[in-house]
Amino acid sequence: MAVSLANDDTARDLRIAKRSQFTLVVLVSLVNFSIGTYLAWTAIALPIFDRHGDPISDQGASWICSFVALGAIIGSVPAGTIADRISRKRSILISSVLLSLCWFVIGFARSKLWIFLARFIAGLSCGASTILIPIYLSELMTDCIKEYSAMIFQLQTALGILFTYSLDFTDNLTAIALLSAFAPGFLSIATKSIPESPIWLIRQGREAEAQEILTHFGGNRFTKKSSRRNAPVSELLQYRKTTIVALGMMMFQQLSGMNSLISYATTIFHYIRFPLSSTSCSIIVGLTYVIATLSSGSLIDRTNRKLLFFLSLSIMSVCMFILSGYFRLKNTHDVSSFTWLAFLAIVTYVAAFAVGCGPIPWILIEKIFPEEVKMTALSASVTCNWVSTFVATKVFQDMLSFMGISSMFAAYGMVSLIGTAFVAIMVPETEGKSVDEIQDELEKEQEFSDYCL
Length: 453
Known about the structure:
The chain is mainly α. It has 23 helices and no strands.
């Protein structure tokens, strides 16, 4: 009986620890919710400016869209160093406060210059947060929870996008900004109750406090090996092939057109002329993103990840080519009876992205790098991700002007198609393999390539 009671107590403690971990992940990932609102804001804000007689030029719109990503590129670089100096918890607090305050600036701005500045500063916080949050959680979470964190991050981003699209009915930029400020504002308040990183505490000589936190959250005991600081970039370059795979996945994820679709959704639906309003179409797309992300967890668990990534990019490519063909025919034929096909292509594209191209690259990065360079690899991947996001959102208007909408979607389709070849040739299969086995496989492929050259 004593043994049974002991086992029951252990099981109960594990359940409590897992519940605490999930709660913490959901709470701090409100940053991702806020990132989703910032990315989707332009899709509804630009038409509102037009309706209120204060239109923004195409180049102005491209800069407003891309300033978040530009700020994020800069903010992601020193994030790890800042977190080491002032602690993870304080860094998350500062980022969430800035994200909230920037919404107030946007909501009450009298000049567009303030909107540009606020979105740039918000971008700094977005970029820093995408480094800080994974580092913070990796130092607290058990492995079984870490695997779900990438999907929770994407779900929060999808919810932020859906939330923003739903606010279009207000037709009021101030109301939209104030409502969007709620999530980072809530996180700013809640940050007081979250624990500090045990790794950071150990570096400050507070071992007992660190172990108490780890015990509460069901983590492993602290070891000297786990207290190592992030490896320098020069050490990451020793894993050349693995780094190419990680950065390549980030570029294909962002340059395939998803962020352009999110940031310019209303504009794209205006071109399609679907019978539903652009607002309704955007909400349906946002809802599709949320539902597909919710189903991605079980699908990823049951399916070969490399295959799912490959299929995701393949479907995305087909959808972009369908859109390209639709707009090509629209120039010479009456395609009003086929607007449903263009709309269905976008919905399918978003669903394919959500179940594969969105979460899987982040999961694979966690699997393919050795522990000693994992955080450095994550930082490099995040920076590359934001650089690609900046390029995608900045050149959208230029592509639309110089290439036309049909050729623009064909270009996105080609990027996704090249991405399928990249996944097939370069990306290793990780299921059932250790990091050492994956590294051996990549090194052999690299040696073979060098020999052929």
